[in-house]
Structures are given as structure tokens and as C-alpha cells.
Amino acid sequence: MPRALSSLGNTIKNWIIDQFHRSQQDLTRLFTHSKTKIRVTFDLWASPNYRAFLGMVAHWLDQNNKFQSAVIGMRRFLDQHM
To answer: What is the CA 6 to chain-centroid distance, rounded?
Structure first.
């Protein structure tokens, strides 16, 4: 039976980094062809285990006037959030 995942230590990390770069290129292309300005919203929330996160989402209309949105950033927020 073939292995689904590689046993090499950096393989999964490299897959994630490669996918990140492909997604960056895709978003850049989508933003370039947007019919509207790119609007950005932010949200700060806490998980059930009291970890706070800050998310950034982009919103735009594509070439077909269809509303699009994409998460473009997410970070753990180390200060308290209530």
C-alpha cells in the first residue's frame, strides 16, 4: 500500500508554503481584474480556549459582478480580548 504522506521532515511544510505562494498569485490576479476597489474588514475574536485572533478579509466584485471575499491575513492576538 503506498504511503499517502511522505516521511521526510520538511515535505508537508514545503507543500503548505507552495500552496501559500500559489494562493498569493491567484489573489493578486483576482485583485488586478477586480471591477471595484478592494475593501478590507478586520475582526477580532476569541476561541473557546480564550485565544484571541485578528483576521483580515478582502471584499470585491469580480469581472462578472459577483461578490467575492477572501481571508488575506490571520494572526493570534497576544493581548487580552474581551
So the answer is: 25
One-letter identity of residue 56: M
**Residue range(s) defining the domain that contains residue 61:** 11-77
Inside any domain, residue 82:
no
Burial of 22 (0-12, 13-18, 19+ CB in 10 A): exposed
Number of domains into which the chain is organized:
1
Residue bearing cell 492576538: 77
Average pLDDT across each block of 10 residues of the chain; the chain has 82 residues. List them in order.
64 91 94 95 89 94 95 84 54
Which secondary-structure segment (H or E) carries 27?
helix 11-32
Global pTM reads 0.71
Counting DSSP H helices and E strands in the chain, the numbers are 1, 3
